[in-house]
Design goal:
The structure holds two protein chains of two kinds. Chain A is 39% helix and 34% strand. Chain A is α/β, with parallel strands linked by helices. A six-stranded mixed β-sheet of chain A has the order 1-2-3-4-5-6. In chain A, helix 2 links the parallel strand 4 and strand 5. In chain A, helix 1 packs parallel to helix 2. The termini of chain A are far apart. By secondary structure, chain B is of the alpha+beta class. Chain B has six helices and six strands, in the order ββαααββαααββ. Chain B has a six-stranded antiparallel β-sheet, covered by helices on one side. In chain B, a hairpin with a 5-residue loop joins strand 5 and strand 6. In chain B, helix 3 packs antiparallel against helix 6 and helix 5 packs across helix 6. The radius of gyration of chain B is 17 Å and the shape is globular. The chains are: A alpha/beta, B alpha+beta. At the A-B interface, helix 1, helix 2, helix 3 and helix 4 of A face helix 3, helix 5 and helix 6 of B.
Chain lengths: 114, 190
C-alpha cells in the first residue's frame, strides 16, 4: 500500500509490518488526510502482532497530521495489538517535542528516537 | 472596549527586528493559498536562525530546536487564520514575528465570526485556566472516536502549549463597522 503526494510519501511494507512516512505533511484537515487515515485503518484491521511506524524521514507534521498519528495509536491500543514501535529521529525537532505524548496514550508503546 | 484573555501585550510595530506577513483572506481560494503556509513558516524559521547565536544560542542542536519551534508555530497560526478568519468582512489578515532578548512573540490578527466568538472565548478561558495536558489527551481520545470527516482536530493551540510551552493571549475588539477583530499573541521563550 502506498500514498504519494507532492511533498510526502507513505508506504506500508507488509513483510515487515512497517508504515514509513517521508517528506512533509501539512494537509488541510481530515478531508485531505483521509487516504492516509484509510491506509492506517487498514493496517489496524489486518491485526498484525507487531507494527512499526517509521517517522525518521518525516521532516514536518502539522497538528491535523499529529491527530492522524495519535488516532492510529489509539486504534491500535483498542485493538489490543501486542507490540507497537515508533521510530523517529532526534535530528527532526518536532519529533522530540510531540512524540513523547504517544506513550501517555499507550504506555506499552516503544518509542525509539535515533 | 477591548476584551483581553491572558497576559496580552501590544505589538511594538516600531521594533527594529520584526517580520510581518499581511494578506487578504479572500483574494484567492483557500486551496491555492494553503501552500504558502509552509513557504512562510520555513522562511520565518530560516530567517530568524541568523540571530540565534547573538542571543546565546550557539549550539547547532539548540538552533535546530528553535527553528523547528518557529516553523511549527508559524505554520499552525497561519493555518488557523486562513481557516477561521471571517471571510464576509474581507478584513485583512496578518502574522507578525518579533524578536526580543529572551523570546519570540508572534502576533496574528484577523476578523472573527460574531456567532463563534462566545464559544471560542469560553474555550480559551478553559485553556488558560485548566490543565492543558489533560485537555490535550482528552481531545485526542475524542478525535479518535470522531467518524465524520471534515471536523477539525482542535489540536493547534493545544500542541503549541503542551509541546512548545507557548504562552498565549488574546485581544478582541469591535470596530466602527461592528467587525470583531482578534489579535492573538504567542510567546516562545528562547
Amino acid at each position: 500500500m502506498e500514498i504519494k503526494g507532492q511533498d510526502y510519501h507513505v508506504t506500508y511494507d507488509l513483510d515487515t509490518a512497517t508504515v514509513i512516512f517521508r517528506g512533509t505533511l501539512r494537509l488541510r484537515g481530515a478531508g485531505e488526510y483521509a487516504p492516509i487515515v484509510q491506509l492506517l485503518d487498514d493496517v489496524v484491521a489486518s491485526a498484525p502482532e507487531t507494527v512499526t511506524l517509521n517517522l525518521g524521514e518525516l521532516r514536518f507534521l502539522n497538528s491535523s497530521g499529529i491527530n492522524v498519528l495519535f488516532r492510529f495509536v489509539i486504534k491500535m491500543r483498542e485493538q489490543g495489538i501486542s507490540q507497537l514501535i515508533v521510530r523517529g529521529s532526534t535530528q527532526i525537532p518536532w519529533q522530540s517535542k510531540s512524540l513523547k505524548n504517544l506513550q501517555r496514550l499507550m504506555p506499552a508503546l516503544q518509542l525509539v528516537l535515533d | 472596549m477591548p476584551k483581553i484573555f491572558g497576559d496580552f501585550v501590544e505589538a511594538e510595530y516600531a521594533r527594529q527586528e520584526c517580520l510581518i506577513i499581511h494578506f487578504s483572506p479572500t483574494s484567492i481560494p483557500l486551496q491555492q493559498r494553503w501552500r504558502n503556509n509552509g513557504l512562510s513558516a520555513d522562511f520565518l524559521a530560516e530567517y530568524w536562525a541568523t540571530f540565534l547565536p547573538a542571543h546565546n544560542i550557539p549550539s547547532q542542536h539548540k538552533q535546530r530546536e528553535v527553528k523547528g519551534a518557529i516553523g511549527y508555530i508559524a505554520n499552525e497560526l497561519l493555518e488557523n487564520v486562513m481557516k477561521f478568519s471571517y471571510k464576509p468582512s474581507d478584513y485583512p489578515v496578518s502574522l507578525g514575528l518579533y524578536l526580543y532578548q529572551n523570546e519570540f512573540r508572534f502576533y496574528t490578527s484577523n476578523a472573527v465570526d460574531p456567532q463563534g466568538v462566545e464559544p471560542f472565548q469560553a474555550y480559551i478561558q478553559k485553556l488558560l485556566t485548566g490543565d492543558a495536558q489533560e485537555m490535550y489527551l482528552q481531545q485526542l481520545e475524542v478525535n479518535a472516536l470522531e467518524q465524520k470527516s471534515g471536523a477539525g482536530s482542535h489540536l493547534g493551540l493545544l500542541t503549541m502549549v503542551n509541546d512548545y510551552d507557548a504562552r498565549l493571549a488574546w485581544r478582541f475588539e469591535a470596530d466602527q463597522d461592528s467587525v470583531i477583530t482578534m489579535t492573538m499573541m504567542t510567546r516562545l521563550a528562547l
